[in-house]
DNA sequence: CATAGTATCTTGTAAAACTAGGTGTTTTTT
DNA sequence: AAAAAACACCTAGTTTTACAAGATACTATG
């Protein structure tokens, strides 16, 4: 035991692992209420082990907007920098349902594989 | 309800979703016994909703081999085409443990997000 | 007044899943 | 017996996307 772990491999894999999951989690977070980009980053960093960067989330949100899964609206603040709030559309909610079923089914499959020693 | 689902988006997302997860599942599958590539594909297609192609798994297995997480060995068959069996190394097992903890922690986080209406 | 934090965005790069092929053998179908 | 399908491996090129590294601009703290 105490094998040497190739941290480069793990880091690369963790980064890899986010792909796809990110969109899913963003939509899940938006389900409860509209959020702005910077807020989503800090929520993500706080609640999950996925440390995502700004260069990741803004293009992603734009993709979701182009697909009409979210809408965005600028909110002028009394003080501070204006925020762009993203809100789930009905289409987004419907897509999230499909994605959720897919993820849940996959998790079940993985559980089954894990248990089948 | 009965929103129109953008199948193009879902298809792209599903494909996206595999990234990273694939390596994890391959290693999980190899944990129980050595397998050959074609076998891993059919196991995958049978047990999960991830339909992976041959052009995906062979480069992936070579990557895992280069990282020394698996070894490979040709097996001459009494009948049929020779198979290249892949086997998890001790290093691979150790890496799988790290990956497993990461995936489990992430799943917990997602559960928490899902429950926080 | 400089620094750290808030908030948005863009460009270029690297990684990897997939498409679309290729090779050759064995089994099944017609 | 010939054709088709399945088995089993592989590679080159395309596309997608997370990230690094930057730009911009406002606010609060020391």
TrEMBL record, chains A, B:
Residues 26-96 form the Transcription regulator PadR N-terminal domain. InterPro entries: Metal_resp_DNA-bind_regulator (IPR052509), Tscrpt_reg_PadR_N (IPR005149), WH-like_DNA-bd_sf (IPR036388), WH_DNA-bd_sf (IPR036390). It comes from the Bacteria. It holds the Pfam family PadR. This is PadR family transcriptional regulator. It comes from Labilibaculum manganireducens.
